Amino acid sequence: MSKLALLGGNPVREASIPWVNTMGSEETEAVLAVMNSGCLSAYYGRAGDKFLGGPKVLEMEQVFAQKFGSRFAISVNSATTALHTAIAACGIGPGDEVLVTPYSMVASATAIVMNNAVPVFVDIDPITYNLDPTQIERWITPNTKAIMVANIFGLPAALNEIITIARKHGLFVIEDNAQGPGATINGKFAGTFGDIGVFSLNYHKVIHSGEGGLLLTDNEELARNCQLVRNHGEAVVDDLNDYETVVLGSNYRMTELHAAIGIEQLKKLDHFLVERRRLAQQFTSGLNQFTGLKGVVVPDGYEHSYYIYPIQYNKEDWGISRSTFAQAMNAEGYPLGIGYVKPIYLIPMYQHKKVYNQTQYPFSLIEKPTQDYQKGLCPVTEAMYEEKVVIADVCRLPYKESDIDDALEAIQKIWMERGKLLEYEAYTVSRT
Ligand SMILES: *Cc1c(COP(=O)(O)O)cnc(C)c1O
């Protein structure tokens, strides 16, 4: 479909801005130094001084722990493996249940299933998109061991409220903070509220090393368990006197190269966040001038890290469908996503409860299932996915103030032309 078919005239922007390369000479030099040392990974999967990795890995853990104010940092090779590490470190396993938000990247829930525990999905708040604390207690059973919270889009969840509930019921709290590095509540960093907080250094995230992940905790026993899971724990536990838990390990180790990049990227985080927050503030005030659009709401005392900027779209006000709105924005040079992610329980693995061949394991370990993952389970999440949420990716470098102005101009143009778009919509529907 040509752009002109959609709106006529010139698009506000000819082509969308590409992804920015945040790798500079600092990262290049740090990587070269590792290359020249020849030591690309110093780990041994056995007890001894190399059980915890080489110099860059140890340095990276130290600078992350310092920056966010945690006692321990444990690096791994992705946030996905970090989330599994966290579940395993807390001793969560077969027959256990973990409460989790369905409105997150699939890994938040997969981590639970990876250790043969069962996710129980708790609906979200329609303003913050994060786990709704008032919905938690109805789902707690004698099997519940933890709450997995995601700080979605970079906004911390209601962590103080959630932790109060968790303490009352003796549950662990694991924070999936892959999207929220540098976000805060009253100055305290997201990722340091729960028993364990998880960070991502994946290419798409606010800071990255290509792939990479990290766990933060103040709890020494949990930190040690994480180290065991990361590096073939079952092989070493005999020889390490101060590691008492028996856990199944894997190879989740980060390379020295990735650690060297991560150290340099962390130094840039504050700068990236200043830019993201400045653009987001401008975008929010512009968006809120429109009927039928709602920008991000940041609760008092919270700071957002704007990994992604979610807009709430109201079809009743606009007349045109969310998808037509997004197509029109795309034609104007501002690609938008719709819905974010499908509620996790609606994906086939949960619908069929099939993980291992034809068995229903691990779901079958819960005698009377707490949830059967039916549609309608989390109505707020489903409404966000199906009707409301539009994802904009303009609050980041290399976008600048004038780009935000242009995006708002494109929205204004679509608002003025929505009659024409309604005709277009009727035409495309009649042809299918
Ligand atoms: C990206 C992401 C992950 C996974 O991170 P990786 O480092 O790519 O494994 C997990 N949870 C959330 C919320 C994410 O956005």
From TrEMBL:
CDD domains reported in the protein's UniProt record: AHBA_syn (cd00616)
Keywords: Aminotransferase, Pyridoxal phosphate, Transferase
Superkingdom, taxonomy of origin: Bacteria
Pfam family, one: DegT_DnrJ_EryC1
GO molecular function, one term: transaminase activity
Family from the record: Belongs to the DegT/DnrJ/EryC1 family.
Cited PANTHER family: DTDP-4-AMINO-4,6-DIDEOXYGALACTOSE TRANSAMINASE, TRANSAMINASE
Protein name as annotated: DegT/DnrJ/EryC1/StrS family aminotransferase
Organism: Paenibacillus agricola
